[in-house]
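wait is this the right file?? whatever heres the structure
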């Protein structure tokens, strides 16, 4: 799912990219449950990709400050 978001982002389809990324993040967080993201490399990759795509979509829309705040908040959450 996160790779679909990256693909949509590459095709400049920000709305689709954002939808895929949000769904990838939701699924990864649900699959992790109470485990740390460091315990599953595949889920860590999916989650990281989803977060990256969401930040890039915000930046593409001219909301660079929002993208940075989002990334900083996600970095602190685990």
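ok assuming it is, sequence goes like this
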């Amino acid at each position: 799912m996160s790779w679909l978001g990256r693909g949509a982002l590459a095709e400049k389809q920000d709305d689709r990219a954002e939808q895929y990324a949000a769904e990838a993040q939701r699924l990864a967080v649900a699959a992790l449950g109470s485990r740390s993201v460091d315990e599953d490399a595949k889920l860590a990759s999916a989650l990281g990709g989803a977060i990256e795509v969401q930040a890039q979509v915000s930046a593409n829309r001219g909301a660079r400050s929002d993208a940075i705040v989002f990334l900083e908040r996600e970095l602190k959450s685990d």
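The chain has a mean pLDDT of 94. so i think its the right one actually
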